[in-house]
Amino acid sequence: MRYDWTPLWRSTIGFDRLFDVLDEVHRTAEESYPPYNIERLDENRFQISVALAGFTPDEVALTVEQNVLTLEGQKAEKDEKTFVHRGMSTRSFKRQFTLADHVEVKGARFENGLLVIELQREIPEAMKPRRIAITGASAGQVKQIEGKAA
């Protein structure tokens, strides 16, 4: 079930992104394939692990565009197989992750049936907090202006 946010769009200004995020959260809750974990390695490093059993690196595409990481998989069926039981899904998929500002994809690798995507937050120097030195006269350096006594 999808929600129609149109009535709310008419009465709000500047909240366009909010409704996009709500819609994305609802859509993500409906889509559960392929399963994934997001792990924080330290303050600025993250790792996404996606379970892709049966896929090869050639069957998976990973792209980043405007803070959206898109993972797509298309299984290439080379020959007809007859399964007695098929418990591993190898259907095509498209999963998107919204990245925060200044988060970059540093690399991706297949490891034990998992696609591991490494992310790093790199805040530009101009945006990092910096300490400002405060200068001024200290108590020991008070100068008195010479003047004539009245």
UniProtKB/TrEMBL annotation:
Domain spans labelled SHSP: 27-137
InterPro entries: A-crystallin/Hsp20_dom, ACD_IbpA/B, HSP20-like_chaperone
Coiled coil ranges: none
Keyword set, alphabetical order: Stress response
SUPFAM superfamilies from the UniProt entry: HSP20-like chaperones
Similarity remark: Belongs to the small heat shock protein (HSP20) family.
PANTHER family per record: PTHR47062, SMALL HEAT SHOCK PROTEIN IBPA
Name of the protein this chain belongs to: Heat-shock protein
Organism: Bradyrhizobium lablabi
Organism phylogeny: Bacteria, Pseudomonadati, Pseudomonadota, Alphaproteobacteria, Hyphomicrobiales
